[in-house]
Amino acid sequence: MSQEKDLSRRKFLKSGILAAGALAVGSSIFHTQVAEAAPEGGHCEPAKFPYPYVQRDPEKAKVDGYAGYGKLKCSYGCFEAIIGQLREKIGYPYTHVPTEVLAWGGTGAGGWGTLCGALIGAATAINYTMEKKDADKLVSELLGWYCDFPFPQYEPPAGKALEYEGKLGTSVAGSPLCHVSVSVWCDATGMKAESKARSERCARITADVAAKTVELLNAFHSKNFKAEYKNEAVDDCMQCHGKGRSLENTRGMMDCQQCHTDVDPNDLVDHIKRSWNMLD
Amino acid sequence: MSQEKDLSRRKFLKSGILAAGALAVGSSIFHTQVAEAAPEGGHCEPAKFPYPYVQRDPEKAKVDGYAGYGKLKCSYGCFEAIIGQLREKIGYPYTHVPTEVLAWGGTGAGGWGTLCGALIGAATAINYTMEKKDADKLVSELLGWYCDFPFPQYEPPAGKALEYEGKLGTSVAGSPLCHVSVSVWCDATGMKAESKARSERCARITADVAAKTVELLNAFHSKNFKAEYKNEAVDDCMQCHGKGRSLENTRGMMDCQQCHTDVDPNDLVDHIKRSWNMLD
């Protein structure tokens, strides 16, 4: 396995650096270099997953997320806002995370309007600091919060907006999908989907999501995270469609009603009768 | 900026290693180490984005993607299938990519059923090797292919299946969303959404998506990639709802009809009349 080979070559190299330190006693400049390198000699070896975390600042995440949107849009913006703060505080291994690799998430994945890109960047940042089983819980909580949050709330300093100055109308998407989030906001505000105002909205959402993600990470890593999100309407549908139930023909937590508009959540008996051709 | 500080510290350290090499002439063991390290001295510095790419094997991606699903599900499986092959061939910087960080994508993001996790892992792997503007094109093409592909096609060797032996029924999701992809398959095959057969299906989808992604990457990096996907039904809707059009109230490329079931794509005049309360 070339990974193993690579690893052992690095261990060899590392021991070489230490050997050089021994050889170089008497050369005070070089001695200083080795003394600095020794405790961190692992820099050349891949860091252990998950990466370390220290408490970070949600307010700074807003500013950095917003700025990141200006560079490579929402998914990169959110990812860089979180990884960037960890890089600043911890250094390696975060210095070796090329945050540009999440830029694909913009416009909900290459223009498709699927999962909001800010969430794609945020979720990946979360997973850097914890195992999948924990990341799943935080990501789920973040998506739930996103569905219910009246975006956007962040406001850049006056005169410093990326695309559009001043207050923007808000809306609650009810969905973690870019396509739905944008469409609901356009309906609520009368703004156009490709306008500068809409792009500004997404920049501010990037700020809001980055800050919430840092809050969740701070809570988790200080053992104060508790999953709170619930969607009772989805739970109702899953009474028949979910795991271990009579139909068990779907998965997920997105609001059912938003797409299944032919089902009245207040009259599920009608839905069942229609589905089974039992209407009078 | 601590990143800059960190970088310059490493340049300093690197020059120290070379200085040590000069000091150590005469020590043949150490000299060998330095000779090996010198051309690759940048290992301790963050690699430049995008990372290098060499032609890889789609068939191996299937096997690795399938195995990866067994470890940490679809998103990790697809990501590891691609990054792992690059790590094996190129070594650094792919040795420093902790592929576990994409595991959150399983079940379409922390259990939500949004973007299929295999696509999340694949898209991130794509973006490691190219800038956003190119990654967007490949990701879009991959999602389009996913919508139209009769999953699953990969078959593990007899007796070696992860969850369910033998052939599985196929379906065309018409969507890049996990929730839709699973539901359509359950409807088509009569299988349960939480069954071992469904999990096996997702493992095989991971294999199929990983292989397609390697094909797209091979094509792009040999200058043979050409975007082909089109969805004319979406284009029809975007004649009013899309960029620069009268409504311009949405974004995205997901099939409209799959959720907007109240619209007959063969009778858009009826849809327009209904929307404007112009029905007789």
* Strand order of the biggest β-sheet of chain A: 1-2
| Beta strands of chain A, count | 2
- Element order, helices and strands of chain A? HHHHHEEHHHH
Q: Percent range for helical residues of chain A?
A: 40-55%
Describe the global form of chain A: globular
- Structural class computed from helices and strand pairing of chain A: mainly alpha
What average pLDDT do the residues of chain A reach? 87
Describe the 3D structure.
Two copies of one chain form a homodimer. Chain A is mainly alpha-helical and 280 residues long. Chain A has three domains: 2-44; 58-221, no CATH class; 232-275, no CATH class. Chain A has helices spanning 2-23, 28-37, 58-90, 117-128, 132-148, 178-189, 196-221, 232-241, 268-275; strands spanning 150-151, 171-172. In chain A, strands 1-2 form a two-stranded antiparallel sheet. The termini of chain A are far apart. Mean pLDDT of chain A is 87; it is low at 1-42. At the A-B interface, helix 1, helix 2, helix 3, helix 4 and helix 5 of A face helix 1, helix 2, helix 3, helix 4 and helix 5 of B.
